[in-house]
Amino acid sequence: MATTPDVSRRIDIDLRSLTAETDFLPELAADWGEECENSRANWYLEWRDLLARLLQLDQAYRTGCMSAEQRQRYRALLSKLREFLPHLHLVGVLPLPVSLELDAPR
Question: How many Cβ atoms sit within 10 Å of the Cβ of residue 25?
């Protein structure tokens, strides 16, 4: 069973990873048409893992398992994902496994 410090560390790692990949979306979308099929396939595999982590982060957020700082970072991540929806659409990773509206029913 994971301890609280382990859970918090995992949340931090996942927030960092998802934020970094989300920040990269505009650049990726700009070059998407030039990406070879292998590069696209690798990227999809990475995002599949990241989207599973996003779902875990959402559950941690909604069940109160995040610190105040982590909750703030998660809200910022969702805001950035909302902003970058056109990029997500272009690269074909919609729909997301979580609501981008924190008050939306699950």
Answer: 22
